[in-house]
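Lecture notes, unit on binding sites. The following record was shown on slide 14. It pairs a sequence with iron/sulfur cluster.
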Amino acid sequence: MKRILFSHSYFLRFDPKQWALGQPYPPLGTIYAAALMRNNSYDVSLFDTMFCSHPDSVKNELRKSKRDFFVLYDDGFNYLTKMCLTNMREAAFSMCKIAKAEGCTIIVSSSDSTDRYEQYLNEGADFVIIGEAEHTLLELTDHLSAGLNDFNSIRGLAFIKDGNIVKTPGRPVLKELDQLPLPAWDLVDINAYREMWLKHAGYFSLNMSTTRGCPFKCNWCAKPIYGNRYNSRSPENVLAEIKMLKANFQMDHIWFCDDIFGLKPGWVQQLAVLLQQENIKIRFKIQSRADLLADEATVQALAASGCENVWIGAESGSQKVLDAMDKGIMIAQIREATQLMKENGIKPSFFIQFGYPGELKEDIRLTINMINELLPFEIGISVSYPLPGTSFYEKVKADLKKKTNWTDSDEMALMFSNTFPPSYYKQLHKYVHQNYHKHLAKNSLVNLLNNPFSVDIKSIRKAVSMLYHAPATLIEGIKLKKLEEA
Ligand code: SF4
């Protein structure tokens, strides 16, 4: 039986903002692949780098027992790995070299290696899997195990042959997701994740995926692994995993990490019925789109099934910018979806993006006004980040010079020329956060004054925080103004 050591290149410690947040999710994509390989008679183990301090630690793991294959397989469901951060890329290269020196065949699958397969091959990978990887991996290891050395027939692969890089035709994505085994959760040290979550968040959340791919075409969004086709697991198959996770790990909460949760008509309603029939209560958060949530029946079904929080890509309060992004969403839909969610007890959260080409001061002002007016539960601010394979990347490619990726998820560097210099967008991020918290505090203060006997201690604290956020917003605003005028 051939032996595989699976790993991935996301080191939480190398991403200071995420380390401080302390809410890591296990590498779901990795344990999906591990489960398929185990079902096909491979002996699999996992070296989870999430809490490791150095890529060298893989050496000890490899020396414990001989492995035939070292499979560096990133979690393609996690947006942090989709950002292709250079700290993680360098760690991946180091691990490839270490595993090579230990005599393994190195196979890599990730968003970054799909985009930069030549670089990974030159850094020691024997094979890079392009796109969705489970079945390519199985076909490749079966080939290698049988002693075959012609890989041209394996779709979705890059390798070096006679000094030249060969890339085979792409592999179509999987349509029947129920045919995949459930992820190999038993390989993960769940207690390490639970401890960190409880310490930082006070509850324990695990991640699940119910779909792959997204059919929408926002022109800055790269989908190198699961692509533009949307395929879904059945609600019954998802329910089986929820039951298994609850029985084995007693998590308090689930993050459904799909790009778009429940896009298939009736899917959310079917899951809600199944959960009710089995009397299973879950709390969860999802990602979706404003246009899909401007529909009362969908929002009600989400609320009935336990959805607490929905992140939508609101991106901008300027219709001009949304249209330039090919977002396919109207500002009115963001407003309507937010209102519907709040009415149904779901917390709406917004991804906001500044710095898209053509965005002017007036567009930024509209975005800030939208946040102040709609007061989402949380906001996540970023600046436009060009990733290969998108038309946005092609638009700014010539301007990228040497820097094309951030070192970690908090770098916030604008990597191309725009209306304002990069320092402005970093300051804008600080200002908008302060301003948002000031408006939340103001809202709590108004509620407190209107209903002094019906507010809880949390709301009182929030109202009092006005004393901090009002002057802090003023200071951040002055700094922003200076950069604007520089
Ligand atoms: S809807 Fe979300 S996942 Fe789909 S293309 Fe747009 S940004 Fe990407």
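Take-home: The two ends are 65 Å apart (CA to CA).
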